[in-house]
Amino acid sequence: MKWPWSVEKPSEDTNARLERLEREWKSMMIEWEEWYDKFRRLYARIAKRAERATDADTVDGRSLNGSTESVEVPATSRLNDRQLAAQRAILARRGGRNAVSNGEG
Fold this sequence. Notes:
Blueprint: H1 12-56, E1 58-59, E2 62-63, H2 81-93
Antiparallel strand pairs: 1-2
């Protein structure tokens, strides 16, 4: 007669099944890590693209969409003096509604 709490020695089938499950688990974890890495890189690219779009909408601390609210300008502007002058000329030709002031009131 067996006691209900007695433990039988695991069979070879149980050990083989355990090893198969461990291999499948490792395989699944590797696949998950690859997908997570792809998603993380994709999200980083999207965030960088959105940041560039936001930076492109500002010139000299003012928004190009006509609003007068204060917008921070990156510390290192991507436009040199010649490019800024050309940008101001283009905006002035558009009717001045989006023109960037030179500090003149």
